[in-house]
Specification:
Number of domains: 2
Radius of gyration: 21 Å
Number of helices: 9
Number of strands: 14
Shape: globular
Strand content: 25-35%
Order of helices and strands: EHHEEEHEEEHEHEHHEEEHEHE
CATH topology of the largest domain: Aminopeptidase
CATH class of the largest domain: Alpha Beta
Structural class: alpha+beta
CATH superfamily of the largest domain: Gcn5-related N-acetyltransferase (GNAT)
């Protein structure tokens, strides 16, 4: 098999046209097949257009692609891939990696060879921290509750959440020196069009949030809000629990925000945001955001939700999430369900999401190696 396998760089193409675009799309097919195998669906894998826009280099990051081909030569089948995200503005010692191997080619050392190539690349780039992520179904014995009897459980340092030590992704990660940095609960709510629950949650939050008001928008952040919005989203790198993961906080300004928004425009991404404002000072003190990708208009993905520490205790998180869900219904009426992710130790946000009707659908293991 080793004589038939070639691992090579795949330059990020400018478009999906031609052979380079077809190779890029082949990686997407691998990811979708892997998701269907583990989770039973592939609706969390965004389309090729969105992924290609995300992969384009910028001042803030670039991506490197490695592919494994069966048979060698141009046009040979891509049976495995490694996607390496290299931050360029901060976290210059870190790299995020994603590995995927076609089902019929697993357990033949292809994933290990891809990882070796990634590690070599990261050493050349001065990256000393590798982070990777793996989705695991609840049906295969992974949960954020108590471990299932008879299943060997692996816990992160925080002690919150667990994964089965026998899961293929877990066995691969531990065999290659990765430690379990954090377990995240992925949750989903199916929208049935009823507003009674949102009405109740909004009324409860309004009682506790006297002295605050909210505003919602779709698309780019209004000019008047840019400076304070950047100040709030910076806290997403410091305030939520990070478990055993290490991140240098990012710094946001108008240039970075508008660059991100332009990338989203090329991805075909629609954004719905609700912010909380302190009435007396007029300052923004919290936000939440949902996004919808072109071609996946039936699904929304939760991005950040955060309230500044000095303004917590007024149910502002509950208020902005309830009102943003309403705003989503007006702006994106085809959305039928929302996905969100929370650290297993983030009990406050998990409780809010559960009140909104979210229920665990799978977990994600965050792996790290120094």
């Amino acid at each position: 098999m080793s004589e038939q396998l070639i691992i090579e760089d795949l330059p990020v193409p400018a478009s999906l046209d031609g052979a380079a675009g077809a190779d890029f799309a082949a990686i997407g097919r691998l990811l979708r097949n892997a998701a269907r195998e583990e989770l039973g669906h592939d609706e969390l894998v965004t389309g090729d257009r969105a992924e290609l826009a995300r992969a384009q280099p910028s001042a803030y990051g670039r991506r490197v692609l490695q592919v494994a081909r069966s048979g060698g030569g141009v046009g040979a089948e891509i049976i495995g891939a490694a996607i390496v995200a290299l931050p360029l503005a901060e976290n210059l010692d870190a790299a995020d990696i994603e590995l995927v191997v076609s089902t019929h080619w697993r357990r033949q050392g292809i994933g290990s060879r891809l990882l070796d190539r990634v590690a070599e690349l990261c050493r050349r780039e001065g990256r000393t921290i590798l982070n990777g992520y793996a989705a695991l179904s609840l049906a295969s014995g992974h949960d954020v509750g108590d471990p299932v009897p008879g299943i060997a459980a692996l816990f992160p340092d925080s002690g919150a959440g667990w994964v089965s030590a026998a899961a293929p992704s877990t066995a691969f990660a531990t065999a290659h020196g990765f430690g379990l940095g954090q377990v995240e609960r992925a949750s989903r709510v199916d929208l049935d069009g009823g507003d009674a629950q949102l009405d109740r949650l909004e009324r409860e939050a309004l009682v506790a949030s006297a002295g605050y008001e909210t505003e919602s928008w779709t698309g780019p952040v209004p000019d008047w809000a840019v400076e304070e919005y950047c100040r709030i989203i910076e806290r997403m790198d410091t305030d939520p629990p990070m478990g055993g993961l290490e991140f240098e906080p990012s710094r946001w300004d108008a240039t970075r925000l508008r660059t991100m928004e332009e990338r989203r425009r090329r991805q075909g991404t629609a954004s719905v945001v609700t912010v909380a404002r302190h009435a007396d000072s007029g300052r923004l003190v919290g936000y939440t955001e949902l996004v919808v990708f072109e071609g996946q208009e039936g699904i929304a993905f939760q991005e950040g939700t955060l309230v500044l520490p000095e303004h917590r205790g007024h149910r502002l998180g509950q208020l902005v999430k309830a009102r943003n869900q309403r705003a989503l219904g007006r702006a994106q009426p085809r959305v039928g369900r929302i996905y969100t992710w929370n650290a297993a130790e983030n009990g406050y946000m998990l409780r809010i999401n559960e009140a909104l009707g979210f229920r665990a659908c799978h977990v994600e293991a965050a792996w790290t190696r120094k």
